Amino acid sequence: MFKRIIFCGCSNTYGHGLSDISYPTGKIDYSKGPSKKGYPNKLAKMFKSKVINLSMPAASNKRIGYSITRLEELGYDPLGPKDAVIFAWTWKLRHASFRHEWGDEIYLHANHSPGSHSRAKVKASKAWLKFRAFADPDGVDLMHENAVWMHFGNTHAKQFTNSVFNIAVGNTCPPELLDIYNVRLLRDYTQLLDAGDKALDGSHPSESTHQVLAVDLRERIIEATQMKKTN
User: Fold this and answer.
1) Highest mean pLDDT among 65-74, 138-147, 209-218
2) Which of 19, 115, 142, 216 has the fewest Cβ atoms within 10 angstroms?
3) Element (H, E) at 65
4) pTM
């Protein structure tokens, strides 16, 4: 059905905590990732497609949307009409500050804990949160900023393929706002991942939860593809 499926997402799509890329404590061994036990590989196998996983733990929606532009820079063939792109959008309270072309993120997550991140990153994150609380107390501007990057990712991918799909794996922008920016979610899987069994780190989804997501997503992609053909 698809030659390749390209996934753009955060740690849930990367496979944080799954046994093939994680230590027994759940900490990632980045030299092994992304995981081959996560829903991207399971879904690609169902479609008999090759898989490219551009996800990165703690990625923001800004980075997720931008990542689809870097296929060739990373050594992959250009995006084409036989490819599918799946954007797995994440929590909106994350921020990326690009320091070079590929988008190294200064602020990885807005809720840094000193035990898991460097002091400099915790300080930077707190400064950004303080600014947001002052300038955007209701988070309206933040939601629009996220939706802009979601729209950007879709617009770029749709230049090359009609098979572009969006899901949420962390609570993101409300549907009424996404309608304005022409982004349609197949499903918000946040609650499913939160309620499902956990991986080695005790926080991210287990392989069995990834399987449930993959099965459901397959059906939604098939349905969406058939609807496009009849319209």
Assistant:
1) 209-218
2) 115
3) helix 61-67
4) 0.91
